[in-house]
Amino acid sequence: MDWMTIIIFSIYMLFAAVCVFVTLVGLPGGWIMVTGAVAIELSDTLWGGNDTWGWLTIGICLGLMIVGEIIELVASGLGSKVGGGSNRAMFGAIVGSVVGAILGTPLIPIPLIGTLIGAVLGAFIGTVLVELTHKEPPEMSQIAKSATGATIGRILGVLGKTGVASIVWCVLLISPFVGG
Questions:
Q1: What DSSP line would sit under the chain, residue for residue?
Q2: Tens digits of per-residue pLDDT, 91-133?
Q3: List of residues 6+ apart from 35 with CB closer than 8 A
Q4: C-alpha closest to that of 163 among 30, 51, 6, 16
C-alpha cells in the first residue's frame, strides 16, 4: 500500500469502528460503514492506489449486512414465539419494533438511544396489542410472557446485528493485507 492509501485506510477504519458502536444503539452504522467502503473503493484510482478491498470483499460485506438485518428483524418475532405468543404476536412484535424505532427517534430525546428504546418498547407494545385483539385473548400473564420474549428477542437482535457489523469491520480491516 502506498502512503495515501494507508492514511485513508486508517482514518476510515476509525470511522468504521464508530459505525459498529452506532449499530449497537439501533442505527444503520453497518450500512454507513459499507457505503464508506464502496466510496473508497470507487475512488481508489483518484490517488493512484490499487483496490483497497476489491469488489468481492465489498460484496461479502453487503451480504453479511443483509444477514444482520434479517437477524435483527426476525429476532423480536421469534422471541415472542418462544415466549408462547401466537403467530400474530410474532407479526405484532416485528411491526411494533419497526414503528417504535421510527417513533422513538424523535419522541425520546436521548441521542442515539431513543431509537433503540423505541424499538424495544415497540416490540413489547406490538405484541401486547396483537394478543389482545384475539377473539379469545390469552390471560394477561401469558401476554406479558410473550411480550417479554419479544423484548428480549429485539435486544438480542440488535446485539446480533452489532456482531455482524463487527465481523464486517474485521473483514475490512484484514482483507487488504491478505492474499496479495
A1: --HHHHHHHHHHHHHHHHHHHHHHTTS-HHHHHHHHHHHHHHHGGGGT---SS-HHHHHHHHHHHHHHHHHHHHHHHHHHHHTT--HHHHHHHHHHHHHHHHHHHHHS-STTHHHHHHHHHHHHHHHHHHHHTSSSPPPHHHHHHHHHHHHHHHHHHHHHHHHHHHHHHHHHHHGGGS--
A2: 888 899 889 988 888 888 887 788 888 888 998 999 999 989 8
A3: none
A4: 30
Residues whose CB falls within 8 Å of the CB of residue 55, separated by 6 or more in sequence, listed in order:
41
For the beta carbon of residue 163, count every other beta carbon within 10 angstroms: 15
- Distances in Å between the alpha carbon of 84 and those of 81, 90, 98, 148, 152? 5, 10, 21, 10, 13
CA distance 79 to 145: 10
Query: Do residues 79 and 156 make contact, with C-beta atoms less than 8 angstroms apart?
Result: yes
Query: What's the predicted TM-score (pTM) here?
Result: 0.81
pLDDT digit string, tens, across residues 81-102? 888 888 888 888 889 988 998 8
